[in-house]
């Protein structure tokens, strides 16, 4: 008889929350003792969902560490200004792994689609604006598409 460590009879469901598209300034790529760093600075972006929409403001960024295991570790920070003036802080962590063909196309500047690699992340949101406080409690998973100049996220709330 197998005993589970956790007695939970549940499976999460996903509900589309929003989509994000971000364009970057030219990427900075350099070696460090712990791996290759890719630094992307947000030029502009847009967030659209059924309950929230607005612009991703310039100046946020995506700090990626690419390890010897060929896995990119995401560290993203940004600010969303909703169409009605609220400010929402966004953080995002995740992992990206591409095969050699997709990696070569990425290095050439192509957009790599979600079904051509493993690219998943978990954006989280923080705001004190009463109209959007509901988003503070939402845990997410996102499916990503990436290039050297832009990123697209399809973000789902985990229920």
From TrEMBL:
It holds the Pfam family DUF3237. Gene3D superfamilies: 2.40.160.20. InterPro entries: UPF0311 (IPR020915). It comes from the Bacteria. Belongs to the UPF0311 family. This is UPF0311 protein MARA_55860. It comes from Mycolicibacterium arabiense.
């Amino acid at each position: 008889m197998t005993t589970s460590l956790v007695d939970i009879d549940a499976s999460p469901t996903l509900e589309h929350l929003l989509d994000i598209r971000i364009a970057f300034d030219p990427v900075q790529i350099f070696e460090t003792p712990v791996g290759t760093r890719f630094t992307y600075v947000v030029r502009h972006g847009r967030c659209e969902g059924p309950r929230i929409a607005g612009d991703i403001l310039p100046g946020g960024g995506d700090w990626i560490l690419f390890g010897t295991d060929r896995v990119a570790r995401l560290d993203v920070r940004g600010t969303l200004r909703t169409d009605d003036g609220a400010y929402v802080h966004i953080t995002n962590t995740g992992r990206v792994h591409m095969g050699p063909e997709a990696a070569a196309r990425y290095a050439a500047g192509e957009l790599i689609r979600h079904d051509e690699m493993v690219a998943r992340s978990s954006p989280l949101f923080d705001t004190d604006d009463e109209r959007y406080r509901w988003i503070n409690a939402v845990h997410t998973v996102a499916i990503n598409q990436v290039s050297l100049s832009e990123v697209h996220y399809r973000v789902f709330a985990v229920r």
